[in-house]
Amino acid sequence: MSYSGVGSSPGNVAVSHGGKMKLIDRKLKLTELLLRCSATALALLALILIVTNTQVKQIFTIEKRAKYTDMKALVFLVVANGIAAAYSLLQSVRCVVGSMKGSVLFNKPLAWAIFLSDQAVAYMSVAAIAASAESGLIGIRGEDELQWMKVCNMFGKFCNRAAGGTASALLASVAMVFVSSISAFSLFRLYGGATATQRQPNVAVTK
């Protein structure tokens, strides 16, 4: 019975798991794929709901059309969801390709890039939702001190659809937060495995 140390390049870590760890890895990859697909669909739905949102109101002899470009917060939300949808779709494809290849080595720079990108997209989505929610509250309640009138009384359909788009974006951001947690776990697990490999001496023992 022999044991031998295994060397690896500085950028890659050789991952060797038992049957139980392989099962956990498969479940983790499947969860990540489902979350990324969900984030893609929800972000795309939010984008469609907001971009196609419009309402025309006749005020005396003046025709006023409400559209998402009238609110900068909604424009920001559209851009953020477009980026999130495209990014999540690309990462979903990467997950599928990675699962089909069943690669053993995991590149640390790539893990860092995925982790930082997930964090950036998640924070951007949360910021866009916060801005949209604040603008929505002003539209519902108004702001007497700044003499901002309530607009949702006149454009109820527009506000309701914008709220639906914001809710969909919120669910997408929740999925991105969970994805960020998974990518963080995957990244820092590599360093744990690398430390254990470095401590193991490269000796052969025969029994």
From TrEMBL:
Claim: Lipoprotein is one of the keywords in the record: no
Keyword Cell membrane: yes
Compartment(s) where it occurs, according to its Swiss-Prot or TrEMBL record: Cell membrane
Pfam families: CASP_dom
Cellular component, GO, one term: plasma membrane
InterPro entries xref list: CASP/CASPL, CASP_dom
Superkingdom: Eukaryota
PANTHER family: CASP-LIKE PROTEIN 2B1, CASP-LIKE PROTEIN 4A4
Assembly mode: Homodimer and heterodimers.
Protein name, entry field: CASP-like protein
